[in-house]
Amino acid sequence: MRSRPVVLTMLVAGLVAVPLGASSASAVGSTESISGHVTFAGQPVAGAIVEVNEWNNEDDVWEPVFHGTTDASGAYSIEVQAGYYEVSAETASPSPYLRTDAGGTVRDPIATVFAVKASSQLTADISMRAGALATGKVVDSAGKPATGMTVLVASTNRFGQAYATTDAAGAYTIEGLATGPATLELAGTRGVAARRTISLTAGTTTKVPTIHLANAATITGHIKAKSPRNQDLTLLDAHHDVVWNANSDSHGNVKITGLPAGAYRLVLDGTNLSKRVVVKTGKTASFGTITRANRTYLSGTVTTPSGKAAAHAYVQLTDTWGTYAGSATTDAQGQFKAFGVLSGAYRVHASNRAKGYADTSVRTTVTKGKDKTGVRIKLTPGGTLTGVVKNSAGAVVPGVVVVDPGAALAGEVVTDSHGRWTLRGVTPGKRTVDVYDPYPGGYRDVTRTTTAVAGKITTVSSTLR
Description:
Layout: E1 11-13, E2 32-40, E3 43-44, E4 49-56, E5 61-69, E6 75-80, E7 83-90, E8 97-98, E9 100-101, E10 112-116, E11 121-123, E12 126-127, E13 129-130, E14 132-139, E15 150-155, E16 161-165, E17 171-177, E18 180-186, E19 196-200, E20 205-207, E21 211-212, E22 217-224, E23 232-236, E24 242-247, E25 253-259, E26 262-268, E27 273-279, E28 284-291, E29 296-303, E30 314-319, E31 324-329, E32 335-341, E33 344-352, E34 357-366, E35 372-378, E36 380-381, E37 383-391, E38 401-403, E39 412-414, E40 420-426, E41 429-436, E42 446-452, E43 457-459, E44 462-464
Parallel strand pairs: 1-10, 2-11, 2-12, 14-20, 14-21, 22-28, 29-35, 37-43, 37-44
Antiparallel strand pairs: 2-3, 2-6, 4-5, 4-7, 7-9, 7-10, 8-13, 14-17, 15-16, 15-18, 18-19, 22-25, 23-24, 23-26, 26-27, 29-32, 30-31, 30-33, 33-34, 34-36, 37-40, 38-39, 38-41, 41-42
């Protein structure tokens, strides 16, 4: 199942457009099929996996319902039932191609939708889009192959990331990437010398210099609690920037590897508990034991600017380090009760963007071992940002994500079939709006700066390339 944001622009082959989700029963004894050829640069692609996907109205995703494989000539034929389908193809790993829809696009919102009638046979040819690959090797401090390491590559100016695991020779090949700059690093080694900046080009393989793990350091320790299993942890550097997120094991043990030498602070998310630890190159340092008492509840009421109960508002709790403690949703009386606080100062955030209210927060203090009650949050009016996303040719772009990244509580929407989007409840003041295409090989990211005004609508234009 592909769970990426999807807004459909139907280009129906052979029949008029009808709403997806409508069903057409096959006649008794009838046979329906979709067949065609999968090619790249005019040459057949043998062994391609072809999926016939049906729209799931409940989950808003395309779901594969029928499958087939191309023969030596790139041909395939799949029996289906009468209905409405999207057809896509991909090849086995490592693949030089991006997953491609019929119509030659990597973007589901503009893929051709095929309407199959009873006893009909339709043709859906697919011309594959080239992807970029990255290959290299990882070795340990002795120069021997580092087996089982997870190598991550993420595009820096567009959506797309992929990973692979090193084999017995320490080698890896990563596929499914788009043209452009990207970062490469090993899982669990963020910030260490293993990190690389690479350049990717569709249709080619980028050879990455060998990664050496000689300078990696390790932090260990123990979380003592009644139930220490999978305690969320955040590792901060000397500037209090997030270096890595980790978890304790079922016994409360912590081990974070692949770090550069330096001073760090380990934070137990949502507890206000932390320990500073300094680690040297190639060495292991322990933060010791952190004892965590039982967490308690925090409750209160959220109201509108006029003082009325704010039903269905989302409430989130964070500690002094900004890490997540808990969350809840208000009831019809605007009341909420969230679990997860320990002691010390907390920030309580509330939001109801659907009603046009901006993210609002208050500070409160929790006493160890006691529930905190009576917290009151009065929402404030927000502004509205809206716009239409187009490409360089002036055509509207459906299915891209528009984000207000500066919001304490997430604010994002997906453009509709006309490229339109609207963000409500935006905190007044200067805002940065990020626009990205959630399909590998799609458009590059765009950032826009604007000003939101309480109670007013501001239009923001965006052009993707």
